[in-house]
Amino acid sequence: MFGGDAELLSMKQTLTEILLDALSRAKEKGELKLAQQPAVTLETPKTKGHGDLATTLALTLAKPEAQAPRRIAEIIVANIQDRGSVIEKTEIAGPGFINFFLTQDRWKQTLFEIDAEGFQYGLLNLGKGERVLLEYVSANPTGPLHVGHGRGAAVGDALANLLAAVGYDVVREFYINDAGRQIKLLARSIHARYQQALGNEAPFPEDGYHGAYIEEIARGLIRADGEHYVRVPFEQCEARFAAFGREAMLAEIRADLEAFGVRFDHWFSEASLLDGGAVQQSIDELKQRGFAYEHDGALWLKSTAFGDDKDRVVVKQDGTYTYLATDIAYHRNKLGRGFATLVNIWGADHHGYIPRVQAVIQAFGHPKDSLHVLLVQLVTLMRHGQPVPMSKRAGDFVTLRDVMDDVGRDAARYIFLTRRSDSHLDFDLDVAKEQSRENPVYYVQYAHARLSSIFREAETRGIAVPASAEVDLALLDTEEEQNIIKSLARYPEMIEEAALAYEPHRITFYLQDLAGLLHNYYFKHRIIADDRARTMARLFLMKQVKTVIRGALGILGVNAPEKM
RNA sequence: GCGCCCGUAGCUCAGCUGGAUAGAGCGUCGGACUUCGAAUCCGCAGGCCGCAGGUUCGAAUCCUGCCGGGCGCACCA
Fold this sequence. Notes:
The protein is of the alpha/beta class. Helix content is 49%, strand content 13%. Among the domains are: 11-102, Gyrase A, domain 2, CATH 3.30.1360.70; 184-249, no CATH class; 437-556, Orthogonal Bundle (Isoleucyl-tRNA Synthetase, Domain 1).
């Protein structure tokens, strides 16, 4: 299932072993003391002249060994035994860097690897099947999804795909905030519109939801239940209005997400925690564990025991629960389902909430870092160079659906992933529609479509995509081809790093780079050329590029079109 | 006032958990379509990495203090 380690070590792994081997040999000979086993790190140098991979091992050893770093580098290099003959040459540079230049053969094995593994190439088994719960979007069912939710959905979905790609067992969950004041307000708003639609004067609630969608829901209720509630006081039909509004909104949210290509494994209702008694049970357990206490007629969570600024109220003086109460129950529920890691994707305006939820996690006896909160910053929509004004109170805001209709699903998803999630995003609607280099999604998709087109052309000329056995990779000798091969070889480590850092945006940057190399290559060289053997080698290379682009786009949830 | 995040090219942003000469796109200017898709490519220019200290062989990256911006600081959700 997972490629990589079984048949072929990555270049990094291979070199790491060679280095460890050299170190132990130096130690045996007494050339190095190595009181402590140093961490062997390898990185890809920025400058080409510095080799394919480089280590700072000698620099970090300088102090403990009390020797000049260059001297240590010489010792290490002298002790290297390159059994697999992957090293073309080794250089000691600068203060003591050891630079490795790898053999052509070793690079080109990458192509065979991709050919053999297909979309499995680059996938790892870091997670080893460990279960991760990823919670995202989690919008109140009181209005349609807006652009900020869209970003959360895109980031969450891509991260879920990414974690799954590195071997985690990921469950995607949407927490429905269907308890408390907001739902009541929704019901009130619908109630007012309902009365108005039937010709009754009805005051609209102070902080009610003003959007036109409320009127639609009211009309829907008239269709469903008729004029049954005319002049019926709100209190007597609240339950019906709340339930109807909740269902209507959820249906719309679900449909929007579906259209956006985002699906959840579970929809978890906040109200169910209250109805089922889970909240009370959670509070009881906190009391038993000594992390809840009564004071001033309220019940407090002792979150300061885990580094929060102050303790937090869980049950108010009037006996009702705070929002934290259901969140305590919710996170207890998550932990109880056996997830080792919880990931929550929140709007950045909730960041102040992190310490107390981490306190909750710890109060239930789990390590702080079993909860990972990813903050997603706000999105500013730009049109004609100006920010699009949005006022939620007036019900006047651009919805995710609007953006999808305007720029398309792929462009929206991709652009949401072109920034680190915690950095502010200006989403330029004009650019997102543009079919040019400026629009990153087209740039990458175009690379894929262009490759597809080449294969169609090859087919019409009667040239089949060659099997690995029939290509001579020595013919891939141009600089552009080398660059592409090295980029493809870097794909697995990029995936690994992106997954470990919970940063799916790294994939978009990688794709921009790879697509750029491809476009550049395409312009300088003909893939289908007169030389048959060279054509075969190049087609083989192009096939692997196509595989990687498609696989990476797949993780992002963006289509890889054959034609555009 | 306290806490979190952010200050990198004119603009929008990367910078891989401390590495070598700080990168990309856009924008400006100039160039490339009889040949596999020009939704593309090539070139030029552009920088006290907010400021000042500190940690060390080495700092855009880590620490401290300022300055500037955003967001939080409820017995709201």
